[in-house]
Write a structure and sequence with these properties.
Blueprint: H1 3-19, H2 60-68, E1 73-78, H3 93-109, E2 114-120, H4 136-139, H5 150-160, E3 164-169, E4 173-176, H6 188-193, E5 202-205, E6 208-211, H7 216-232, E7 237-240, H8 254-264, H9 273-295, E8 301-303, H10 309-314, H11 319-324, E9 331-332, H12 347-357, E10 364-369, H13 389-399, E11 404-407, H14 419-428
Parallel strand pairs: 1-2, 1-11, 2-3, 3-7, 7-8, 8-9, 9-10, 10-11
Antiparallel strand pairs: 4-6, 5-6
Helix pairs in contact: 2-3, 3-5, 7-9, 13-14
Amino acid sequence: MLRKEEKMVIRLFRRHIVIACVGILAGVVAVTMAVNHCGEAKPGRTQQAVKPGAHSEPNASSQALHSAGTKEMRAVWVPYMSLNMSYEKDKSEQSFMKKFDAIIHTAKLCGMNTLVVQVRPFSDALYKSQYYPWSHILSGAQGKDPGYDPLKDMVTESHKNGLKIHAWINPLRISISGTPSSLSNSNPCCIYQKDASKSCYIANFKDGTYYNPAYDEIRRLVADGAKEIAQKYDVDGIQFDDYFYPTQDTSFDWQSYSNYCSTAKKTGTPLSLEEWRCANINSMVTLVYREIKSVKPGLPFGIAPQGNTANDMKMGADVYAWCSAKGYVDYICPQLYYNFQNPVLPFSAAANTWRTMVKNKDIKLYFGLAAYKAGSGADSGTWKNSSTILAGQVQYGRQVKCDGFMFYSCEFLNSSQTKDEIQNVVKLLN
């Protein structure tokens, strides 16, 4: 496995002990980063064909009963684009719920038991929040009250149809590529930018704007937002996606890192930039975890990182710690968006790596699968070589005893491009 990352985590663990008392805003390390030595990944396995079952195609009612009776996670991600009302003439509650009801219907037909719905994509909210403005996807303008509470409605309708629902949060992204086109004056980003002492809380990279997690107030904002959802809504889980630090570029947060180093040198050896970023994200993750548990101890909190662990560490996502230590997550769902023939990271090798990494028996391991790639020209056209790739991945995940699957995304459960692949998956879920 990735020995470079293992050694880095070990160094970070040791240095945490040395600098534990460093009391600066930018570099405080609230938790000890755990060390997890992973064995070598097993050789990739040749994809096995899936034989169609002899039963008939599922219907919504029978499938809902089947899904409700299984412990296996069968989830589909619902990104904000699938709920976008910006360009709809009718932006009413009825119109929004008609769109969501169609998603529920398709999910049930495909054997899903959980929806993972993006409710905070851009420092905004698809619910009434005291911390974030209303999302632009509801009305076309950020901060405009749509006149109803979408998350409340989605929770009610999901549960009525026998489905669980997890609230999906992008913790740090404010805008990217001109989306949203403008921010509400009530957006925390705008408030911070007007305050010279807090303008450093906002960082820019290329065409994106992000919160800088080096600061305690930003980590608190994210945690309070997650706690608010847990308090006000009957969701069945809360999930972070894979967007943490958007770049390895030192210019992104150079000033806050320099301030940290100046103080840390007085008492010890500063962490490297990569280590320090990991520490900041870990502080945020543990704070979110504690705040959720403070109001609903049994509510699961999970993260869906990238499938490549080397990329995760470069983004400040300390997946080794999250998979092995208490107090970070209840579940981890790596996005294993590779087929068995991927020359860089075959699906089987990635699956074996993550299965080995999850040492803590209390942490659920789900595999994120790329429904959107099925039948497409992705990965040099290799997804067109078979219609049983996703089904084979489900079978492989069961062989290595993962706890379930999450598919990206709902739009591709019902498309001509993915039809054959999805049908073969559905047969496995019945």
